[in-house]
Amino acid sequence: METLEQKNKKLLICISDPTILEFLTNTIQTYFEDVLDIVSIRPSKLFDLDFVPTAAIISHRTVNLVRERFPNTTLILQKRDLSGQALEKVVSLPDGSNVLIVNQHMDAANETIRSFIELGINHINMRAYAPGNNIDTSQVDAVIYTGVPEDCPKLDCPYIDIGLRKISLYTIIDIIRAFDLPSDFTKAYYNDSIRLFTASCYQLQNTLEQANTLKNNFEKICDINNNITFVINENDEIILFNETANKYFEIRDPQEIMGMDYKEVFRDQPELLSYIAANVPLTDTLVTIENQKLLLSSFEMDVDKSQNKAFTLLPLSTLKKREGMVRKKLRATGFTAKYTFDDILGSSTLMERSKKLAKVYAKTEFPVLITGESGTGKELFAQSIHNMSSRRESNFVAINFAALPETLAESELFGYMEGAFTGALKNGKAGMFELAHQGTIFLDEIGDASLPVQAKLLRVLEEKEVVRVGGTDVIPVDVRIICATNKDLQAAIREGTFREDLYYRIKVLNLRLQPLRERPEDIMEIISHLLESQQAKALANLPNIRDKLISYTWPGNARELRTAAEYMNMLSSLSDREEALDMLNVYFENNLQTDPLAETESPAQTGKPGREEAAVKGDYIGPDLIAILEAIFRLQNQGVTAGRNSICKTQSAQALQLTESKIKSRLKKLEAMGYITVGKTKQGALLTDRGYQLLKQFIQ
Ligand SMILES: Nc1ncnc2c1ncn2[C@@H]1O[C@H](COP(=O)(O)OP(=O)(O)OP(=O)(O)O)[C@@H](O)[C@H]1O
């Protein structure tokens, strides 16, 4: 046996792949050519050698041959590493890609696969390939080769050259050991290989980066909702303190408090300290920190067996701001009144009077009941009243009882709690009354509300608070009520389908909108506004068309007028004028037949001193005259003499700011019109029958 001293300096390199053989030989020579006698050969030349090398660098393919030829020689299995760049290319392949690893020899290709796996590359499916090796290449997404493109099969996919791989540090160390060389020899190689080492850590580095990104994201998420957030671990140490918390507690160096005991950090906040120390679940618990009220909540964080606890603090002032913003958003999503009095067309005496009265109502907080046939503009008026009221900045929430199924009415109006019924939304839902808080709720077609719903509505109007379906908490609501109906509510009360007590609650102020047939002057004004072109306007003004429009009874009122206007707009675009006229006449014949009922109901036939009559005569009956008539009526009923002074003190006169001198002139006017008599003595003003009939039309 050779002793250590007797060792020769011969290092054999025996590899089948000529490219790798040359590459390995060059690399090993770079480091050892001064101290070792390096011989490199292909396996076929093995038996030509006439010396026994101390060590031999071999591959998986040549190991048996060399062992057989030189049984006492130290065998060093060549190991190579990948460069960082090569690794990056491989790592960036999409997950699950089918990849061919190509080398001139299968064992070398397999060795590359082994090194990839050792380096933690496991997101791709790798198969070895060498020229002449018959394997299925139909499902290949990428080909990886080592410097020799000729070895690769011709496929339609990306080719990645990872170049010749560097010799591994282990191989260098094995050579040093085999020849008992001083360890200094590793130094030169170490400098080079440190880069390789970094590459080998590529995956680890990536994972660390991902973890860091996740941590940063988490901290950002904690900041997004602007809640003060901090996390404490089981040793009472602060392990997270978000940006909002830093600002709120005025922490100059956030890093400094990481790992600090929370009792130290919050030493000046005894109330907060006691809540944290109590170790009980907290949900929106009210705490005071430096005279400011905040809501404190705690959350157990059962992550990876840790017993961390997160806390959030939300100042009430922030909560209020958010509530305001949510309300604004709700308004933006549909709870808005878009119409104002300027959108209400018609300047007939009756329409002017309705607008005047409604504008006065807008200044008050009283409930308004708007009555009138379908399409007379009840909702238009309701929206305009809201928009002129002090509540215009808040929601206008409209609910139509004719379209609201009985089963949904309660939950829609008053909201519900989570789990109140099958299909109830998680976290429950606010009802229309809550959404209208500080604004106006418009209860359209109130005459269609069922008796049980009427009972609940009455309760809300009286108590000014709601309780959600399935809940117990009482929620105060500050809402102005405007109701509308085209039904005769007094008849409904007689029939027992409408509650009398509710009727008096909602009808504090009454606005009766007249149908178009009672104010024919408005027809042409509204229709001309809706006609888009000059041709359409000219068409409408043709004498026979105009007569038809005015004499028609318009049971659908302005809504029907809109439809007629749309039809006329469409016809006016026809180039053949005669044809347009014919079609219009057909439309009138089919649709606009004078309603015989309306004619028998006309004021002339009923003998009533109707508003139409008054308007035609030029006797304008403004809201001030009606208010005075109403005041006289009420005083008369109370047995009080209706003089200037007593009328002036009534609610209706005060709402219109009528002075005694104004009242005096109006009393004269009413007397001249035959609606009142004014006694010369203490008797005061008295309603005539005519005056009573007129007033009845305004006050149901
Ligand atoms: N004076 C008016 N000027 C302009 N448009 C009007 C006028 N009156 C009503 N309209 C229009 O007619 C249509 C019906 O109006 P609105 O919905 O306010 O009537 P309504 O009395 O509430 O009807 P319904 O009782 O059927 O609900 C709307 O398109 C409205 O803009």
Break the fold down into its secondary structure elements and pairings:
Layout (H helix, E strand, L loop, with lengths): L9 E5 L3 H15 L4 E5 L13 E4 L4 H7 L4 E4 L2 E2 L2 H8 L6 E5 L3 H13 L6 E5 L12 E4 L13 E3 L4 E2 L1 H10 L5 H17 L1 H23 L3 E5 L5 E4 L1 H6 L5 H4 L4 H4 L4 H9 L6 E5 L2 E10 L6 E8 H17 L16 H14 L5 E4 L6 H11 L7 E5 L5 H9 E2 L12 E2 L1 H4 L4 E5 L6 H13 L1 E3 L6 E3 L3 E6 L3 H7 L4 H7 L2 E4 L8 H10 L3 H7 L2 H9 L5 H16 L4 H15 L4 H5 L2 H4 L4 H7 L5 H16 L5 H6 L1 H5 L4 H13 L3 E3 L6 E3 L1 H10 L2
Parallel strand pairs: 1-2, 1-3, 3-4, 6-7, 6-8, 8-9, 16-23, 16-24, 17-20, 20-23
Antiparallel strand pairs: 5-10, 11-12, 11-15, 13-14, 14-15, 18-19, 21-22, 25-26
Model description:
β1, α1 (18-32) and β2 (37-41) form a beta-alpha-beta unit. The chain has a five-stranded antiparallel beta sheet with strand order 12-11-15-14-13, sandwiched between helices. It has a five-stranded parallel beta sheet with strand order 17-20-23-16-24. The chain has six domains: 10-80 and 171-200, Rossmann fold, CATH 3.40.50; 83-164; 211-319, Beta-Lactamase; 341-512, Rossmann fold (3-Layer(aba) Sandwich); 516-606, no CATH class; 621-698, Orthogonal Bundle (Arc Repressor Mutant, subunit A), CATH 1.10.10. 46% of the residues lie in helices and 16% in strands. The protein is elongated and about 155 Å long. The chain is built from 32 helices and 26 strands. The model is unreliable at 1-5, 194-201 and 594-619 (pLDDT under 50). Adenosine-5'-triphosphate (ATP) is lined by residues 344-346, 372, 374-380, 444, 484, 486, 526, 558-559, 562. InterPro entries: AAA+_ATPase, AAA_lid_NorR, P-loop_NTPase, Sigma_54_int, Sigma_54_int_dom_ATP-bd_1, WH-like_DNA-bd_sf, WH_DNA-bd_sf. Keywords: ATP-binding, DNA-binding, Nucleotide-binding. This is Sigma 54-interacting transcriptional regulator. Residues 344-570 form the Sigma-54 factor interaction domain.
